[in-house]
Amino acid sequence: MLDPKILEDFGAKMSALFANSPAKDIEKNAKAVLGGFLAKLDLVTREEFDVQAQVLARTREKLKDLESRVEALEKARQA
Fold first, then answer.
1. 21 in helix, strand or coil?
2. Residue 41 DSSP class
3. Where do the domains of the chain lie?
4. Helix, strand, coil % over all residues of the chain, rounded to 5
5. Looking at the predicted structure, is the pLDDT value of residue 2 above 60?
6. Whole-angstrom distance between the N-terminal and C-terminal Cα of the chain?
7. Is the Cβ–Cβ distance between 16 and 10 less than 8 Å?
8. Which end of the chain has the lower number of beta carbons within 10 A, N or C?
9. Residue 24 in contact with residue 30, Cβ under 8 Å?
10. Is the alpha carbon torsion for 18, 21, 24, 26 positive or negative?
11. What is the structure's pLDDT at 42?
12. pLDDT (mean) for 29-33
């Protein structure tokens, strides 16, 4: 059976090798390209979206109230 210490050492050496390889540069460049692409899109954060959803919900509620008031005023005027 393999010693866990040997596996840990092997994993650490592989991680160090990967960190110094061209693959790390490729990953860094891919992240930069993707980040630049996403920055050009018209995106909002989840927090901004949630705030706007709350504003919209309050606006809809106010609209309902105003519609009810207008309807009541129209009925009173007709009577």
1. coil
2. S
3. 1-43, 44-79
4. 85, 0, 15
5. no
6. 94
7. no
8. N
9. no
10. negative
11. 80
12. 83
